[in-house]
Fold this sequence. Notes:
Blueprint: H1 2-24, H2 27-31, E1 44-47, H3 58-72, E2 76-77, E3 80-84, H4 92-101, E4 106-110, H5 115-124, E5 129-133, E6 142-147, H6 149-163, E7 168-173, H7 178-194, E8 199-204, H8 211-223, E9 228-232, H9 237-250, E10 257-262, E11 270-271, E12 274-275, E13 277-283, H10 285-297, E14 306-309, E15 316-318, H11 328-342, H12 352-360
Helix pairs in contact: 3-10, 6-7, 6-11, 7-12, 8-9
Amino acid sequence: MKNRKFITMFVLILSLGTLLAACGSDDKGSDSDNKDGDTEDFTAAMVTDIGGVDDKSFNQSSWEGLQEWGKEHGYSKGEGIDYAQSNDKADYMPNLNRLIREDYNLIFGIGFELKEDLEKVAGQYDDKHFAIVDDEIDAPNVASIMFKEHEGSFLVGVAAAMKTETNKVGFVGGIDSPLINKFESGFIAGVKSVNPDIEVEVEYAESFGAPDKGKIIASNMYSNGADVIYHSSGGTGNGVFNQAKDLKQNDPDRDIWVIGVDRDQYDEGQIGDDNVTLTSMIKRVDVAVEDVSNQAMDGDFPGGELLEFGLKDDAIGFATTNEEAITEEIIDTVNEWEEKILDGDIDVPQTRDETKEFVDSL
């Protein structure tokens, strides 16, 4: 009799414990395996490169992606999302440490220049998620985000070749590096694929935050006869736009163009009733930042992985906003070349050596 009462009591206690456990759990707790265990408290921030968060290009696109993610989850600047502005390389480490102290769960380093510092703090704080854009770090708590910029640069190179009337175009780079060489290589390959006789002048400002230098370089290129300049230089590119707009204002009948980068830079080319932005090479850093943030919040952070986005992912492309400048003929031709890349008929070069081989084979 005592044994029977004991068994009955044990069953009741076990049932009650199961019921309480079920009531105490929810979907968020069971679905999330992020290190903090609570998606409601998962926060993210970013450290900008030198160009600044309002560079109209790379950093700005990254911040827009983080803001969009924040809107999805009811966050605003300083409340769940934030950025730390870098005005010099010496700012990278203090900015990273500041965001770590403020206990952000995911911290992005925007640009390859942050690699060394981000790699160091990732090794010191293995309980945090980190992500680097435009470089690769081999660490279990770091996601590496890269793009096939050479593919998009090829496409705007085709557009430049079809638009030029002088058979001279220019390329302005930020820092002479393997990353920016991808932009340069793809652009030259695209130009030369249309017309091998077009001259491409290349110059680097050695900075992503020197609009004054960008303006001087652009002035020299336009004076040398270039009528289209593609920049891949972050905030330095603002100087390229300023020079083109100054020339257009002084001579409204002159056909002079800039090709933007990373985001649609149509607005940067507006000068009165005219616009000097031919097109822009679109690089959806915003989409990548938003996507990785959601993965981390959901407990699926791609730590230790290399994520590469290209044409086939709709993460690389070209803008058609300036309908008066980029005609249907140009768009159709660019789309034809895009199909050749997607079909594997063209292997777009990524380095200067590959570009030389590519051009020699035309």
